[in-house]
Amino acid sequence: MNTTAAELRFKLWLNTPGYPDRLSYYASTDGNYFYGYYSNPTGGWVDRVMDLSNVYTLGNLLGQPNVWIAFRFYSDASTNAAEGAYLDDILLRKCPTGATCPVGGSLPTRGANTDTPLRATRPK
User: pTM (2 decimals)?
Assistant: First the structure.
């Protein structure tokens, strides 16, 4: 709980024809309602970061006792010419109070995410 910073960091290669195909990544505090972002085709490997102190709609998750993280790939199957989504180097990191955060890849500033925000509900 006593956390000064936390983030989800990963590499993404999204090779799709575009909307509605997408890769979404989310956070949740209850395991039912997830908030996060979706990415459009990337044209190669790109870095993605979700600052867990500033999640779309949920806000600051640093003091939460439980946080769920989810990835979801969606394709409408209108074409099969593209490969889909690849994820690599997935890192979920937190910096406890009093600790020094790692130097490699500093935590992002607010608003650093360029992907589109969205909400999803877990199916029953």
Answer: 0.79
